[in-house]
Amino acid sequence: MLSTHTDMQMKDATSSALILVVDDEELIRMFVREALEQAGFEVCEASNGSQAMEQCISRRPDLIVMDVVMPVMDGFSACSKLRESAEGARVPILIMTALDDADSIARAYEHGATDFIAKPMHAAILGHRVRYMLRGSITLNALLRSEARLGLAQRIAKIGNWEWHPPTDRFTASPELCRLMGIRLQEFGGTKGAFLKMVHEEDRDRVDHALKSILEERKPCDIDHRIILPNGGEFAVNIQAEAVFDDQLKSLTIVGTAKDISERKRSEREIHRLAYYDSLTGLPNRVLFKDRVTQALAHARRYQTTLAVLFLDLDRFKVINDTLGHNVGDLLLKQVADRLADSVRHSDSIGRSVEQGETHELARLGGDEFTVLLTNIRDAQDAGTVARRILEALARPFLIDGHEISVTASVGSAIFPTDGDSVDLLLKSSDIAMYHAKDQGRNNFQFYSKTMNALAAERLEMENDLRKALERHEFIVYYQPQVEIRTNRIVGAEALVRWLHPHRGMLLPAEFLPVAIETGMIQKLDQEVLFVACRQNKAWQDAGCTPIRVSVNVSNSFFHGALLTSAIARALEETQLDPECLELELTESITMRHVETSITMLQELRAMGVRLSIDDFGTGYSSLSHLQRFPLNILKIDQSFVLGVTRNAANASITRAIISLAHSMNLSVLAEGVETEEQLELLRQQECDQVQGYIFGRPMPEEEFVELLARTSSPPRNRRAA
Ligand code: C2E
Ligand code: MG
Ligand code: MG
Asked: Is the pLDDT of residue 622 over 70?
């Protein structure tokens, strides 16, 4: 079917063909025209070679029938000229010669003639001959076109092809393959050896072996390897080949393609990088780290060596991230990674480790968590040495975006085989040890121990219990009176949270706040205390007590989180408490970071009518002058200063200085932790405004506090009378 179809196409193409007849004798031209028109062709004429050239350019004939002997330009020269021109290069040329003129026939071929026909000619034969030549020409042109297209397609696809004939060792490479290999077709040696020479040294044996396997096992091959370019560069190719039996050669030929896959290799490398490396620091990620530990464990088991996993977590990184922003946090992590890499690398050159084969692998697990794998160490002390070096390396402050940031880290270590014999166990043990380091006051290093495991379990339990506690309303609020020194009257109460744990009884904030802060539950907890305290204060007023303010502690997360202002507005709205009767105790750190947003926030709160105080003043690093920009009402001097105020002259002068400076800034001062009469007396002399401490009452349940308040408040009737 298909061939008939193309035959028909070809017939169409040949019958409408235009034939140029070139002869100086008009009679012959007439004869040839007659014969060709009879056969269905169109005809144009020329009487010599140079006319033929002109006709060829203007009429573009599909075939030329030409005489040899002509004036002006003979048939041979015309043939040569035509072949040199763009228009005549591929036109089939049929030369008319005398039958016995063998010389002319040979010369005609030399000059580019396609075929010859002897005179005298038979009209019908001429027609057939021309049609036959036209068909050949169409087929040839189609072949040339398809070859050109194939070449183009190969160039676009960066694919080349080749053949190797083992018995003769002839290796032919397509122009595109040569182009890929960066050589010219003529430069290619033409043997398998010549090809292998261009293959990367390390891949050569593999490629050679693959070629042999095709021959011996008739297995098609599909391999990737590298090609070395003449300029020294290299790129990756994929070779696919199989053996083909060549009927003519009566032997096997290996036919193959070679495709440039450098792009794919690049993508593969990129995917590998994304899957196994941390994009921020470029360090191996958790997946790759675990993989390396698994390998190291297999090795350690086999050769009975010791290895350690160090688990490092930056102290209070969350605070830095929350207050200075994620950009600064990211930059800090990058610099930390660099310092870690440096310190871990250095331990190689310092110790005896190199010849012992001790190696270090650093990874970032995520967030501010880093791990180090130490292999071939002598004992746990070696891990301690590296951990200490790491802590030292982090001790210098970091300079980021104009901020000088000091960070410390807590490091835990777990040793194989004593602390775990699997990746997961070692990671878990070192993590637990790291938490223990945090509990020990951070910025230190701890080995894993079994008791720690128990502590970790306890911590986890605490976390779960805390979650339930919020739902079950196990938190209660205690109140501690705040007294005005001048009048000796209760002017406020600090709301302090307590946890009525179902099994452990009443817990103080110190026992559960750290976990609440770390898990972020503190925001909900603060909000809960805020509502309870507002409701309670309103109830006291409704019961007829003199209005006092209630102060609520606001954690950094609650302050910087999104809930604060709306929670306060809602609490005031729901309880109908006068905003003046609500005070927020903030920590000093909000005055040090994110200064501008903090000020805006405080102004917003002040505009709502709420009072603001700075808690535990003196324990942070903010200076009083710094505080000037903040719209505050009260400064609470930390109890550590009050504790020594009567014993220690330095403390006494500190409190005096704080009080007078605060007054110059129109701030009231409250001293915390006042326990004795002497302390109270001294503070009175220093003109401190208010005090809070055991001397006037410990934090107490609401029922007790309201009693105290009622006792010290003036009776409602008197007040009305007054
Ligand atoms: P704080 O805000 O500085 O509260 C004062 C702490 O000092 C209270 O400890 C209180 O019991 C104790 N204290 C009061 N007078 C004296 C005294 O005369 N001598 C001594 N030695 N101590 C005294 P508490 O209730 O254990 O609370 C500890 C800290 O927990 C609080 O310190 C506060 O920072 C935090 N906290 C308490 N409740 C909350 C809360 O609801 N939310 C938040 N975010 N933090 C809270
Ligand atoms: Mg407080
Ligand atoms: Mg305080």
From this structure: no
2-153 domain in CATH 3.40.50.2300?
yes
Residue 273 corresponds to which tokens in the numbers above? 């990088």
Residue 180 contacts residue 260 (beta carbons within 8 Å): yes
Q: Give me the pLDDT at residue 519, please.
A: 81
Lowest-pLDDT choice from 132-146, 220-234, 293-307, 334-348: 334-348
Nearest-atom index, ligand 1, CA of 699: 11
> Which one-letter amino acid corresponds to residue 266?
R
Say how far residue 59 (Cα) sits from the centre of its chain.
Answer: 65
Instruction: Give tens-digit pLDDT for 307-323.
Output: 999 999 998 888 787 77
Pull the structure tokens for residue 675.
């326990």
Residue 628 alpha carbon to ligand 3 centre in Å: 20
Give dist(CA 421, CA 262) in Å, integer: 41
Q: Name the closest ligand to CA 642.
A: 1
Instruction: Report the nearest atom of ligand 1 relative to the CA of 692.
Output: 15
Residues in contact with ligand 1 (CB, 6 Å cut-off): 480, 496-497, 508-510, 513, 522, 526, 529, 553, 555, 585, 615-616, 639, 672-675, 692-694, 699
Average pLDDT over residues 42-53: 92
**pLDDT score recorded for residue 629:** 86
Whether CATH 3.30.70.270 fits 279-449: yes
Q: Which pairing describes strands 93-98 and 221-228: parallel, antiparallel, or unpaired?
A: unpaired
Distance 686 CA to ligand 2 centre (A): 22
Ligand 1 atom with the smallest distance to the CA of 674 is: 18
pLDDT in tens, 502-536: 999 999 999 999 889 888 899 999 999 999 999 99
Probe ligand 1: pick from 532, 582, 672, max atoms within 8 Å of CB?
672
Which among 651, 579, 658 has a CA at the least distance from the CA of 612? 579
Domain extent listing, the chain: 2-153, 158-266, 279-449, 463-712
Q: Calculate helix-pair angle for 123-157, 26-38, nearest 10 degrees.
A: 70
Give the SS3 label for residue 530.
helix
Please report the atom of ligand 1 found closest to the CA of residue 497: 38
Nearest-CA residue for atom 41 of ligand 1:
497
Query: DSSP 3-state assignment of 249?
Result: coil
- For the structural domain made of 463-712, what CATH number should be given? 3.20.20.450
pTM more than 0.70: no
> Ligand 3 centre from 636 Cα, in Å?
7
User: What separation, in Å, do the N-terminal and C-terminal C-alpha atoms of the chain show?
Assistant: 121
User: What would the mean pLDDT of 37-65 be, rounded to a whole number?
Assistant: 92
Q: Which CATH superfamily is domain 158-266 in?
A: PAS domain (3.30.450.20)
pLDDT of residue 238: 94
Is 465 a residue whose pLDDT tops 60? yes
Instruction: Give 443 Cα–ligand 1 centroid separation in angstroms.
Output: 25
Q: In the prediction, which pLDDT does 561 show?
A: 85
